[in-house]
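User: Here's a structure from my thesis project, written as structure tokens. My advisor, Dr. K., wants to see whether a designed sequence matches the one we expressed. Can you design one independently, without my sequence as a hint?
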């Protein structure tokens, strides 16, 4: 026979166990909630970064420029470019008719100083700014 006190003890023991389980579950849910909040913050940051990159891509453009290729420039024309750079205060190195590192460094400095696109090429626009017109073959 179960007495009232025994039933109370059994019930109170269950209640304590249930409270422990509830506390444990609540603690675990709280931890998971915090982890989700952190993950959400990371995702928000990534979304902002991707949106910024997308804005750059959308605002970007492609520009086609005529450039001077080796087959399109004679030694005499290269010397003309080197002399013009030197006259304008940009040191192309030895004036030898070859487009080497020193000449390209001077070309790039000239391009930058004159608001021209800076790249690894001598554009027709750059030639015009140097006062050189037309392209002759080898």
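Assistant: Designed independently from the structure alone:
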């Amino acid at each position: 026979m179960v007495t009232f006190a025994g039933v109370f003890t059994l019930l109170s023991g269950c209640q304590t166990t249930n409270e422990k389980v509830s506390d444990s579950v609540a603690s675990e849910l709280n931890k998971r909630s915090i982890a989700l909040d952190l993950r959400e913050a990371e995702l928000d940051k990534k979304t902002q970064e991707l949106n910024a990159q997308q804005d750059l891509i959308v605002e970007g453009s492609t520009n086609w420029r005529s450039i001077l290729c080796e087959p399109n420039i004679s030694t005499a024309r290269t010397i003309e470019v080197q002399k013009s750079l030197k006259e304008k205060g940009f040191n192309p190195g030895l004036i030898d008719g070859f487009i080497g590192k020193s000449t390209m460094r001077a070309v790039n400095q000239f391009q930058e100083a004159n608001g021209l696109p800076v790249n690894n090429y001598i554009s027709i626009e750059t030639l015009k700014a140097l006062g050189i017109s037309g392209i002759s073959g080898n």
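When you compare it with your expressed construct, this may help: The helical segments are 4-59, 75-87, 101-113, 124-129.
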